[in-house]
From TrEMBL:
Keywords: Hydrolase. This is Serine hydrolase. It comes from the Bacteria. It comes from Winogradskyella echinorum. Residues 367-448 form the Peptidase S12 Pab87-related C-terminal domain. GO terms for molecular function: hydrolase activity. Residues 35-336 form the Beta-lactamase-related domain. It holds the Pfam family Beta-lactamase.
């Protein structure tokens, strides 16, 4: 449901909210997907290293009716990989390892199978090590505690999927090995190294690595959605995620992290550049991933980002160097598209080239609408229940134009008839079909947006 309304209403923001301030525009974008009575989101936007927007929407705990705060702590999932990669580079700068070292030098289990795998291959997911971890296996007890050596033992006998450097394939297992290398080289547990050399150094006071700190302030509870209702997600023992995804943090702490990277507080500029450079395969082909950083574009603007996901949590952190813009969004429900929200916010600060807009319009086939008598259209008007206490409205204006009004919105979406009961929206890829019973009475509508279907009963 939320994804359906997200696209529709965001376009209203684009068309009708030009005069709004950035704050109110961001409020509108976020509020489409996240309301105050559901699991929510903390989102921060920074320009040139300074926060210009920081808010939270929704509940940290539905059962306790606890609201999210700017200081709420979330599992950040695979954004953890940035911390692991930087830790490896810190040790490299100290001369304690070389990223061209074969991993068998540190991990006995990989002396043979890993004789051609370097630390570099682990950092950029070109090792060929299969992405098989306890967290990803169906039926695995998620509360199980495992040591780093036990985690490696879980996948060490898997054959390589390809020769190192031949392909790019995302591997949490590879980053688990990196965490163990950090422990062996530094002589500290991974969590202690991260907390001492990163969190404490740059003032990330509300961050921790796994469950190493008891009584985390402002914790959030994770949720999933089942049959249109929010349900507590199973707790995961973060020892299973380890150096691939065990960090908990806040949006404000992640801004400190980003600023530390750009100011060379933790690493030399040359090391940061190495981490933020796309990977070259053996063939010379480049892939859009460095050491814990993904690369893409928004319009003509480069984007450096990473996402994360654990049970009940999703996250994204993205940086636009051209605009000097940093956005991080953390959620406690993995049932909504936080990446899309962050992208929409970024688009407020990025100029999309005219040729891209023209190209997008040309790529959309033109659909022709037909006229439908007002007496038929009036049968469709009324409210439709998407879920308890959430209704959308179908109305008819004085020009015989049928429209949809999404919950909590004031802007109307015009509906155009393709047949007498099937309608489409011109500004997005969305359709609505009105359903009748044997007595020819309208009983529901089916919404279809980009392949996602939802049925709403007529009240």
């Amino acid at each position: 449901m939320n994804n359906f309304f997200t696209t529709l209403t965001f376009l209203f923001i684009t068309y009708f909210s030009v005069s709004q301030s950035y704050e109110s525009k961001i409020d509108s974008i976020v509020a489409i997907s996240y309301n105050q009575n559901e699991p929510g989101i903390s989102i921060l936007v920074a320009k040139e290293g300074a926060s210009i927007y920081s808010k939270s929407f929704g509940k940290a705990n539905l059962e306790l009716n606890t609201p999210l705060q700017k200081s709420s702590v979330f599992q950040i999932g695979s954004i953890t990989k940035q911390f692991t990669a930087v830790s490896i580079l810190m040790l490299a700068e100290q001369g304690k390892l070389n990223i061209e070292d074969n991993i068998g030098k540190y991990i006995p289990e990989y002396v043979e199978i890993g004789k051609d795998i370097t630390i570099h291959n682990l950092l950029n997911h070109t090792s060929g090590i299969k992405n098989r971890t306890p967290v990803g296996d169906k039926g695995f007890i998620s509360k199980t505690n495992m040591s780093p050596t036990e985690l490696i033992a879980y996948f060490k006998d898997e054959p390589l999927e390809f020769k190192p450097g031949e392909r790019f394939k995302y591997s949490n297992a590879g980053y688990i090995i990196l965490g163990r290398i950090i422990e062996i080289v530094s002589g500290q547990p991974y969590s202690d190294f991260i907390e001492q050399h990163i969190f404490d150094k740059i003032g990330m006071k509300n961050s921790s690595c796994g469950d190493t700190k008891q009584g985390i302030p402002n914790p959030t509870k994770g949720y999933i959605i089942e049959q249109n209702d929010f349900v507590k997600s199973d707790d995961i023992n973060l020892s299973l995620a380890y150096s691939a995804g065990a960090i908990l943090s806040t949006t404000e702490d992640l801004l400190k992290w980003q600023n530390a990277l750009l100011s060379n507080t933790l690493l030399k500029a040359s090391s940061i550049k190495q981490a933020m450079t796309p990977t070259s395969l053996n063939s010379g082909k480049r892939v859009p991933y460095g050491y814990g950083f993904r690369f893409s574009k928004l319009g003509n603007s480069p984007v450096i980002a990473h996402t994360g996901s654990t049970k009940g949590f999703t996250s994204i952190a993205l940086f636009l160097p051209k605009e000097k813009l940093y956005i991080t969004a953390l959620t406690n429900c993995n049932c909504k598209n936080v990446n899309n929200v962050a992208k929409q916010v970024a688009e407020l600060f990025v100029s999309i080239p005219d040729d891209k807009i023209t190209e997008a319009k040309h790529n959309q086939p033109e659909r022709k609408s037909i006229n439908v008598p007002s007496e038929i259209l009036s049968d469709y008007t009324g409210t439709y229940e998407v879920k308890p206490n959430v209704n959308l409205t179908i109305g008819l204006d004085n020009t015989n134009q049928l429209y949809l009004l999404a919950p909590g919105q004031t802007k109307k979406v015009e509906l155009f008839a393709e047949t007498q009961n099937h309608f489409f929206v011109k500004i997005v890829d969305a359709e609505i079909t009105f359903n009748k019973n044997e007595a020819n009475n309208v009983i529901s509508l089916t919404m279809n947006q980009s392949g996602r279907k939802i049925i709403a009963k007529k009240n």
